[in-house]
Amino acid sequence: NYNEYKSYLRMSVALVRKGVETLKRLLFEPEYLVVMGVLCLIAETFINTVIIEKVRYTEIDWAAYMSEVEGFLNGTTDYTKLKGGTGPLVYPAGFVYVFAGLYHVTGRGRNIRLAQYLFGVLYLVCYSLVVVILRKAQAVPPFILLFFTFASYRVHSLFALRLFNDPVAMVILYLAVYFFLQKEWFKGCITFSLAVSIKMNIMLFAPGLFFILLVEQGLARTVGYITACGVVQLALGMPFLLDNPMGYLKMSFDLGRQFFFKWTVNFRFLPEHVFLSRYLHVGLLLVHVWLLVGLYLLRWRTLPRPLTPHSLLIVLLSSNFVGVACARSLHYQFYVWYYHSLPPLLFSTSLPQPVVMLLLGVIELCWNTYPSTVISSFALQLCHVVGAVALLLPPRRRDVAKIKSR
Fold first, then answer.
1. What is the 3-state secondary structure (H, E, C) of the chain?
2. Max Cα separation, the chain?
3. Residues 143, 132: Cα–Cα separation, whole Å
């Protein structure tokens, strides 16, 4: 009996050790990222369903979107005359077509529950694209997907409870990123331009994309790809350009819009008159340009050629990150602009892993503080500063070795 007990104990210990090793690989080995992604996707399906069924929907912009596209569907193609409850239409033409489709599918926008489930599906598509991109680039350990799934109340709500256009733009953008990692440049550029047509924030990726195209394809082909992007914008905007070209360009690509202080997430710690000051706006623009130049000089141009999927991803995401960090104002729905890019960016720096996790936690906490406070907005900007400086410094030696070996 004693020998049987020892044998049983040895077997139990071996099984526990094997289980622990399997769990460690699942959490930390990049090749297990897809497995973790599938498990998290199953959890996400359940989480999104519960959110939609149990958490109260909050009306913010959906009704305004429906009013804006209703004007177009009724025959109005003068962009200056398309308005909703929150003011005039300020998004490019792609937004009109996408939300006009949603207008029809949801019974003139009245079937909110159906719209929520459609955005829930959109969330799952977004999550799947992010997993595929991170696996292709081998950018993060699998446990980061648990962070996405269980620590992102704000992002879940932006999709399923708020129905903003930002998630739509970002899903199309991630599809473009996937094409870029596959080095399918034409598909990527066309998809990128489609994302821009939903919301202008996608242009924050443009400096990085321009660098990538120059390095990978040369000047002549880069000009061709940029032309293709322009043709997409012209084609989508044609009905509005033929009616009132200046009105369309002014309303849909307005870079001088003034934001309300009461909604700012990142500059609550400033006095309102400073927040509204042109000097602040110009200063942020100059810092943005300086950071892009710094990224080019210190990080991008030192990358081994041809660019690897990891390098491509970091260039695109860092281009966007410094733009977000220098934004004149961030509203809660803007979190989705860079939420999924924070882990791969921070893990590419020389910051210790505990510091990376601390930054991710503080940023998440700041975005979940409503309304924003002096402390939350200052902490958020401080995290942005730390992240931007870390991106300018040389990456981890092991990351460089990993990049060169791919």
1. CHHHHHHHHHHHHHHHHHHHHHHHHHHHCHHHHHHHHHHHHHHHHHHHHHHHHHCCCCCCCHHHHHHHHHHHHCCCCCHHHCEECCEECCCCHHHHHHHHHHHHHCCCCCCHHHHHHHHHHHHHHHHHHHHHHHHHHCCCCCCHHHHHHHCCHHHHHHHHCCCCCHHHHHHHHHHHHHHHHCCCHHHHHHHHHHHHCCCHHHHHHHHHHHHHHHHHHHHHHHHHHHHHHHHHHHHHHHHHHHHCHHHHHHHHCCCCCCCCHHHCCCCCCCCHHHHCCHHHHHHHHHHHHHHHHHHHHHCHHHCCCCCCHHHHHHHHHHHHHHHHHCCCCCCHHHHHHCHHHHHHHHHCCCCCHHHHHHHHHHHHHHHCCCCCCHHHHHHHHHHHHHHHHHHHCCCCHHHHHHHHHC
2. 91
3. 15
Amino acid at 280: L
In angstroms, rounded to a whole number, what is the distance separating the alpha carbons of residues 238 and 232? Answer: 10
Residue reference for tokens 């940023």: 363
Structure tokens at 69: 């596209």
Residues 6+ apart with CB under 8 A from 155: 148, 335, 336, 339
CA atoms within 13 A on the CB side of 120: 20
Shortest CA distance to 253 belongs to which of 193, 302, 303, 213?
193
Q: What is the pLDDT of residue 222?
A: 98
pLDDT tens-digit map of 96-116: 999 999 999 999 999 999 999
Nearest to 174 by CA among 316, 358, 345: 316
Q: Which residues of the chain have pLDDT under 70?
A: 1-4, 6, 256, 396-406
